[in-house]
Amino acid sequence: MINTVQQNEILGDANYLAHRYDEVNDAFRFLDVPRDVHRQCTFITDEHLPNIEQFHSIPRSEVAQASPPTAPVHFIFHSAYCCSTMLARAFDIEGVSMGLKEPVVLNDMIGWQRRGADAAKQREAMDQSLTLLSRPFGEDQAVIIKPSNICNPLAIEMLKMRPEAKALLLYAPIEGFLKSIAKKEMWGRIWVRDVLIGTLKDGYAIGGFSHEELLQLTDLQVAAIGWLSQHALFARVIEEIGADRVKTLDSDTFLGQSPETIAALSELYGLGMNKAQIRAVIEGPAFTSHSKLDQAKRGQVFDAKTRDEEQQKVAQVHGAEIEMVATWTKAVAESQGINFYLEPPLL
After folding, report:
1. What ranges do the domains of the chain cover?
2. Weakly modelled stretches of the chain, pLDDT under 50
3. What is the 3-state secondary structure (H, E, C) of the chain?
4. Which of 89, 180, 182, 280 is exposed most, by the fewest CB atoms within 10 A?
């Protein structure tokens, strides 16, 4: 048990990450995760965080009574394999902002919803989660949250909870997305079927296919169904929240115009970054090392050229199938009125 002084210290300090929501005990679990640990972790998930068993549990009722310092919060929603982790890493800028990479407490919200959570209680817990995640590190002026893509069904609700928040919807062009899945081989093909199951549970999988027809699809066609479902969901986010608060970007444009992307996001998020700060980001670790390699290989450069070389290698093996599925995806999109090119673009 922790005393009141310790509890107040935890709630007031962003170094104590609100890591999990325990629905059984109606409490939040906090882990000591200072900024340097964030930098070492690909994601702030159990797999990557140290000492996950050394958590502090605080009842949600106690959290509700607290008034921790908060900063403006903004979002990067993404449809996976689109360099979203790189972008979140880029906003770890001391004195400006902190990028949070897939906080699990938001995954807990979608998992709880799937298990039949009381809607009002779940909204309260999600609102409190956003407050806890928006505690600033030091003198930072904002927090940029990149939720896991499984949290996309909550995007509209989260943006409505934070009327001042802005969001980027980041996605990979369909051909690049399919190449990323093929590159992962069996694990990528398993993942896309898990994604399809999730979209069906959450009620936003595109229509037009019976369960039997879905089972008849190839792995890459299943991947395309997931991509289209995310695209249709993003369109609803834009429609409900508005083009003044939500912008879109594809990963090819991001990699090809990285300085322009950071400058545009600085303006969107109200960060007020100057040219020197933007240059430091572009020359920093987010753009000069791979975000998802193990520590021994983190120094390897990953940029538009590297990504293109990787995808060319995949195309040599899977190119014909990818081309056929991409053509099929465009036909499905046209038949269902799904816009392949989301607007408004960030650039």
Report:
1. 4-336
2. 293-299
3. CCCHHHHHHHHCCCCEEEEEEECCCCEEEEEECCHHHHHHCCCCCCCCCCCCCCCEEEEHHHHHHCCCCCCCEEEEEECCCCCHHHHHHHCCECCCEEEEECCHHHHHHHHHHHCCCCHHHHHHHHHHHHHHHCCCCCCCCEEEEECCHHHHHHHHHHHHHCCCCCEEEEECCHHHHHHHHHHCHHHHHHHHHHHHHHHHHHCCCCCCCCHHHHHCCCHHHHHHHHHHHHHHHHHHHHHHHCCCCEEEEEHHHHHHCHHHHHHHHHHHHCCCCCHHHHHHHHCCHHHHCCCCCCHHHCCCCCCHHHHHHHHHHHHHHHHHHHHHHHHHHHHHHHHHCCCCCCCCECC
4. 280
